Known about the structure:
The structure is a homodimer of 322-residue chains. Chain A has 322 residues and is of the alpha/beta class.
Amino acid sequence: MNIEMIRAAAQRLEGHARRTPLLSSPFLDEIAGRRIFVKPECLQHTGSFKFRGAYNAVAALDRDTRTNGVIAFSSGNHAQGIALAARLHAVPAVIIMPADSPALKLANTADLGAEVITYDRATEDRDEIGERLAKDRGLTLIKPFDEPQVIAGQGTTGLEIAEQAAEMGIREANVIVCCGGGGLTSGIALALEADAPGLLVRTAEPEGFDDVARSLRSGKIERNDATSGNICDAIITPQPGNLTFPIMHRLCGPGLVVSETEALLAMAHAFQRLKLVAEPGGAVALAAALFRTDQIDGDDVIVTISGGNVDSAMFTRALESI
Amino acid sequence: MNIEMIRAAAQRLEGHARRTPLLSSPFLDEIAGRRIFVKPECLQHTGSFKFRGAYNAVAALDRDTRTNGVIAFSSGNHAQGIALAARLHAVPAVIIMPADSPALKLANTADLGAEVITYDRATEDRDEIGERLAKDRGLTLIKPFDEPQVIAGQGTTGLEIAEQAAEMGIREANVIVCCGGGGLTSGIALALEADAPGLLVRTAEPEGFDDVARSLRSGKIERNDATSGNICDAIITPQPGNLTFPIMHRLCGPGLVVSETEALLAMAHAFQRLKLVAEPGGAVALAAALFRTDQIDGDDVIVTISGGNVDSAMFTRALESI
């Protein structure tokens, strides 16, 4: 992994991924006691940053390999990112999803042109299904975060943050990133190391699923006890990746951790002050900036809203929390 | 009013107003049967396009006049736009609002630094209050739409649409604009006449408050029977402006009209597919593009989402409508 891979990804994404703006609100600044700038990747295609890494990974395959198609395991944002990326390259995509996934997620992924194959979580082995399909059809597996071209694609978010911060005259700031497996975080960290070394990346995670914060503290990969049971499901993974963790360990500051209640409150603030729809996992960085102010340094903070794929019931719950 | 005033406004707004992106979703395209591009002015400062006109009008005052401050009558988006524009120029702003305005709107306007003066709609004459204050303090009244520098500021939205459409290779399209008094519509129409003559501006209004559609049809200014009693309150005015109507009459195609139910549905689609918060009046153009497809020509349509200042209860109602 290096910065040149991220710059190459930016070229591949030119005209395909959205250059999301950097937004702010005086009302949020007042709560935080410093200026907050928001990078809304919920406005990215398919509603999350995942499209960047997916598109880059598909685009980076050699033509013959790509023509056979790609395969991914995901019930969430990575699935939609891969589905759209494959469609834009006119190649097949197979997405393996649990049969009990929310109907809307199954439908969205299929509507984006992917072949959705469901499995029974209780009785079937998804890896076995995936391997068989990949072999039979010559599909290339694209992992959700521990994959160099995926990290490079997510890192283009960091190139944009570096440019936008420079335009705003911001030379020093904490950049808080919603963190699951670390693909977005490590990509942004590499981009900022090169283009904006005064910007320090911090991770944000939900309480009880703070594997990255604990790993950063101990210096080695730590696992979560559970991998479900939190509304921030989009960013919950068993542990940081083997590729992403060394990058985060070298470049990131201490991790920040917020409660579910704070994530919901941050969603309500994003609604009210930014007119943005954030999903719970996509709101943890904003929550940290708003409610963990004593753990943040400096006059300015930049946060990602990593995704906005949330259903009406959960969004209504967030609006009722304020 | 002319295009040079709009270009001058763009220079004044440079670095102050946001250049909002042009967004899209394959799911919306599918509903409409053509490509829909969305200009989300809900992401503008203060949550609506009104900031553009307000900032330009304040900036265009000569220094001595400006120093005395500005005054506006508004309970809504214009109030917030003027309040922030005045604050950014470090001049006083007085906003005259009905005493029974929603508490959040009163608070937001005051929090943006304006002096809010309330009046009793039943017993007091707001014009008399405003005139007295303006005279006593030397304040300049900035009207919400029938004011050349306000129209010029709103027209910068049109300059951006012209550029963004050209980048997407769009030479011909209907551009549907949420229309109240016609400030945004006439400004965009003038900008597109100069920079993108293949783009035809159309207005969108709520049923029962279609003064502009009727005025465009009859060729003279027509009034609404009522000026309240619709959820699209942000874009309800008694009649088109004396400055804005001749421009709209010369340049715009037939007006489009949608129901409250359709506006709510469009809000739900903007939530689900674009991750944007639209207010009911801000969603009527998207509603027209989605649900009045037989009245629209061509392969592409561009719509404004003119604002996102909606409370939780109304937004929840929209989410429940889908």
